[in-house]
TrEMBL record:
Pfam families: AAA_33 (PF13671), HD (PF01966). Coiled coil: none annotated. It comes from Fuerstiella marisgermanici. Keywords: Kinase, Nucleotide-binding, Transferase. This is Polynucleotide kinase. The keyword Repeat does not apply. InterPro entries: HD/PDEase_dom (IPR003607), HD_domain (IPR006674), HDIG_dom (IPR006675), P-loop_NTPase (IPR027417), tRNA_CCA-adding_enzyme (IPR050124).
Length: 377
């Protein structure tokens, strides 16, 4: 089945499809800690969560797309437990550290292969990653900061509703207190004005500054005096970054890792140290001259992207991030037409680790799900 077929399917059919998948079979074989999940294995819990979604008072009023988002969040929220579960040799307790982080990547990969649209896929993937946050809100030093931050990554209303179903979808009697904690998430988000929308920062720079500071202030409005604007391109090889720049930012000088690799005669599979060093030098020259420019590289991982964004921010640049993602099959075909095609196994590896950018990283964000084609003459 593909994504369009699954979207039109009943919950019973979606569950039957899931049970035919290897990731689901692994969930059935994965035990959980009895104190938190006395109902048994991961898949048993997952089916109970799916049932609880339909029992939510709000379920009938949700839009069809919201319902499908919550259903697939339920399917994938513990999908990485088989990959992370371990038994403490001293206590015998079962733990699954960072299963939500790895689950985000599994969900993204499966949904991409199904042909799920980018917006819905990322909404599900991020809900999978942050699904456990509401239960622990009161343990945060600044609870309001937590709901404000998450509001720019997920819809807090859907996160709250899923957390309710997740908590109710188990047999453990001692879970009443965590459910009470979930209501604080809703109340806190409502009071902060970010229950069903992103937190309303005064300016884009106020938002950008909040997410960069170690001790942020939600109400701080920093002075804006940008030295220049840097457009950071992000996307897998063959996604159309060069074409997008030529059509939308043709007036900008470009620092391109592909161009530097050609200059230095370095292959994409070679050590990239010299390429990165020369790129930094050229970026710094433009930043010191206060000239706007575009930085063109794959930039598909948060950590890698963050190093460049930190450099630009240090020079007080206004930062625009542009992420392009065509359908994967189209991307592979487009890559084959490049003068220096990237080996297909490398693209698959990059895709598996890809982390599309979010509003936490920049002043403005452009996300386009398309494949640019040459203009006809």
């Amino acid at each position: 089945m593909n994504w369009e077929q699954l979207k039109q399917s009943s919950l019973e059919d979606i569950t039957a499809w899931a049970e035919s998948q290897p990731w689901c079979q692994a969930m059935s074989d994965c035990a959980q800690d009895a104190e938190w999940h006395s109902e048994g294995d991961v898949w048993t819990h997952t089916k109970m969560v799916l049932e609880q979604l339909l029992e939510l008072d709000e379920w009938p009023s949700l839009a069809p797309n919201e319902q499908i988002v919550l259903i697939f969040t339920a399917l994938f929220h513990d999908v990485a437990k088989p990959l992370t579960t371990e038994v403490d040799p001293e206590t015998g307790r079962v733990r699954s550290p960072k299963h939500a982080v790895k689950g985000e990547h599994v969900a993204r990969s499966v949904l991409r292969d199904l042909g799920c649209d980018l917006t819905t896929r990322e909404e599900i993937a991020r809900l999978v990653r942050y699904h456990g946050r509401p239960a622990f809100l009161l343990e945060r030093d600044e609870p309001t900061h937590e709901v404000a931050r998450l509001s720019w990554l997920v819809n807090n209303r859907l996160l709250y509703l899923f957390a309710l179903a997740d908590t109710r979808g188990r047999d453990t009697d001692s879970m009443t207190r965590p459910e009470e904690n979930l209501h604080y998430w809703k109340l806190m988000a409502e009071e902060a004005g970010c229950y069903d929308q992103p937190y309303p920062f005064a300016t884009d720079h106020a938002r950008f500054t909040f997410f960069r500071l170690r001790e942020p202030n939600l109400h701080y409005v920093p002075h804006e005096d940008f030295s220049c604007t840097v457009t950071l391109m992000a996307g897998l090889p063959g996604s159309g970054k060069d074409t997008w720049l030529s059509r939308n930012r043709s007036d900008l000088p470009i620092v391109s890792l592909d161009d530097i690799r050609s200059e230095l005669d370095v292959e994409p599979t070679d050590n990239q140290g010299a390429v990165a060093q020369l790129a930094k030098e050229r970026c710094r020259e433009l930043l010191r001259a206060k000239k706007s420019f575009a930085f063109n590289a794959t930039n598909t991982m948060i950590q890698t992207r963050g190093r460049w964004l930190d450099l630009f921010a240090d020079y007080n640049a206004q930062i625009e991030v542009v992420y392009l993602e065509p359908p994967f099959e189209n991307l592979l075909r487009q890559n084959q037409t490049r003068s220096k095609a990237v080996p297909e196994p490398v693209i698959h590896k990059l895709a598996d680790k890809c982390e599309p950018p979010t509003w936490l990283e920049c002043h403005s964000l452009v996300i386009e799900e398309c494949l640019y084609k040459p203009r006809l003459t």
